[in-house]
Design a protein that fits this description.
CATH architecture of the largest domain: Beta Complex
Radius of gyration: 18 Å
CATH topology of the largest domain: Metal Binding Protein, Guanine Nucleotide Exchange Factor, Chain A
CATH superfamily of the largest domain: NAC domain
CATH class of the largest domain: Mainly Beta
GO molecular function: DNA binding
Largest sheet: 6 strands, antiparallel
Structural class: alpha+beta
Number of domains: 2
Protein name: NAC domain-containing protein
Pfam family, one: NAM
Oligomer: single chain
Order of helices and strands: HEEEEEHEHH
Helix content: 10-25%
Organism: Phaseolus vulgaris (Kidney bean)
Keywords: DNA-binding, Nucleus, Transcription, Transcription regulation
Shape: globular
Strand content: 25-35%
Distance between the termini: 40 Å
Length: 200
C-alpha cells in the first residue's frame, strides 16, 4: 500500500477483472454496504486529469480503476470527459446486472474541446437488478446505488499509430484512414446488436 492509501501491484501481478466482476464484487458492495474494504480508491473525477491517475487510482498496466461520485459534469482543470453515446449492458447468469458507458477525454472547454486518446468506461449498477424485501428498502437501496460509479480509464493504443498511420485524423480524404473513434464504433457493431437483443 502507498502512503496515500492506494495500492501498487508488485511486479508480475495484474488486476484484470471482468466487467461482471467489477460490478458484482466491487461496485455493488460499495453502493450497498455501509463499510466495505476495497483495494479500489475513491477519487473526485474533477480533480484529476487522466494522465495524473497513475499513483492515485489502482493501476494495472495502463489501466486505472477508481470509484467516483456519479455526476453529469465531468470537467477537470484541463478538459472534460465526453460521453460518446455507447452504452453496453453487463450480464451475469443471463440477467442484466449493470451497464457501462464509454467516454473520451477532451482538452479545453466544451463543446470545442480537442479529442485525446484517453478513454474511460464508467460502470453503473442497474437500479432494478437487485431486489430487497420491501419497496421501501428497495427505494433506499436504489438511491444509494445512484451515488457511485466505478471508472476504468486508459490511454488508447492503436496498432495503426504504431505503423505511422494518423488514426486520429477525422478527415478521411483518401477513404482509407479512419479516426480511432470510428474504428471503435465499427468494432462495436456486432456487440451492440447482441446487447440490444437482451431483455431489459
Amino acid at each position: 500500500m502507498m502512503a496515500s492509501g492506494t495500492l501498487n501491484l508488485p511486479p508480475g501481478f495484474s488486476f484484470s477483472p471482468t466487467d461482471e466482476q467489477l460490478l458484482l464484487h466491487f461496485l455493488y458492495p460499495k453502493t450497498s454496504l455501509p463499510s466495505h474494504p476495497t483495494i479500489i480508491p475513491d477519487l473526485d473525477l474533477s480533480l484529476h486529469d487522466p494522465w495524473h491517475l497513475n499513483g492515485k487510482a489502482l493501476s494495472s498496466g495502463n489501466q486505472h480503476y477508481f470509484f467516483s461520485r456519479a455526476k453529469e459534469n465531468r470537467s477537470t482543470e484541463n478538459g472534460y470527459w465526453k460521453e460518446i453515446g455507447v452504452t453496453e449492458a453487463v450480464v451475469s447468469a443471463s440477467e442484466k446486472v449493470g451497464m457501462k458507458k464509454y467516454l473520451v477525454f477532451n482538452l479545453g472547454e466544451a463543446p470545442q474541446g480537442t479529442e485525446t486518446s484517453w478513454v474511460m468506461q464508467e460502470f453503473h449498477i442497474c437500479s432494478s437488478s437487485f431486489t430487497t424485501a420491501s419497496t421501501r428498502g428497495r427505494r433506499k437501496s436504489d438511491q444509494c446505488r445512484s451515488k457511485w460509479v466505478l471508472c476504468k480509464a486508459y490511454e488508447k493504443k492503436s496498432s495503426e499509430s504504431e505503423e505511422g498511420v494518423n488514426c486520429y485524423n477525422d478527415e478521411n480524404d483518401s477513404g482509407t484512414e479512419l479516426s480511432w473513434l470510428d474504428e471503435f464504433y465499427m468494432s462495436l457493431d456486432d456487440d451492440l446488436e447482441e446487447v440490444m437483443s437482451l431483455p431489459n
